[in-house]
Write a structure and sequence with these properties.
7-stranded antiparallel β-sheet, 157 residues
Length: 157
Amino acid sequence: MDRTSGEKRALDLMAVTPTAVLTTMDANGWPSTRAMLNLRNVETYPDLIPVFDSHREDLSVYFTTNTSSEKISQIAQNGKASVYYCNPSEWRGLMLGGTISVVSDPGLKERIWQENWTMYYPGGVHDADYAILCLVPRIAKYYEYLDSVSWNPAEKP
């Protein structure tokens, strides 16, 4: 599989998986893994398609989280992280590894906000506990059955 094919298939996979699995590093240097809402899922979040259109090549990923969550302190200590998307029934997977940070742009927070998130953030889009994370990948590894390809999304093909 070449990079171009891998990128297309990776984007297709990101658009349909219901969750993304995020791994950060804890204070002792151990991986800390959890399932996250996949904001790139076009069926669940069709209104976010324009947000990710500008990230088709660099594969940057946004997540929402509580500012009170353990992830925030882990990211402050070590900004290295990975996210994994998979469809086990089709033997397809994508791992993105890179740096993750808390986004402070209030405009982006408003563009990403979903009304049903008040169950997590009762104060709405301006809730102090509502945060956006952005993972900027430097390595992408896509596999499908026994075929795979790796590339750096920051580098043009």
